[in-house]
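W.,

You were right to be curious about this one. When I first looked at the sequence I had no strong expectations either way, so I just let the prediction run and decided to look at it fresh. Below is the sequence, 119 residues in total, followed by the output.
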Amino acid sequence: MTQFVPDSKHLLKRRMSSGWDAHHVCKTLVLWYPELLRVGSIHVDMRQPRQVMEFLQCLQDYPADLQDIMILLAQRYGVQKATFALDNAIRRHVEETRRRHDEEVAEGDASVEPERLTA
């Protein structure tokens, strides 16, 4: 399921050190790792130990390179900021995909000939 991204960890490290914020990095991650879309909401409140444990368990399901990237994100931006940014990136990607799909369906409906609709 993971899309092959050559040396994604190195590329993201370089982007983080060149000033990319957590939101830009996470937007890129969602494009490179579509399996993140299955995760759903992952925002972690560090004051809630149960949420932290759920996040750590969730990380175990990721491929090793994605686990490393998530750890890098957490180290660079902090767990809360990194998970919040990733949560937003996932939500926005899903919303954008739905919107595009709805537009395509609407365009397809508009192109159907009126005679065929009444027949």
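Here's what jumped out at me. The longest helix spans residues 79-110. And, maybe more interesting for your project: The chain has one domain: 8-110.

Coffee later to discuss?

I.
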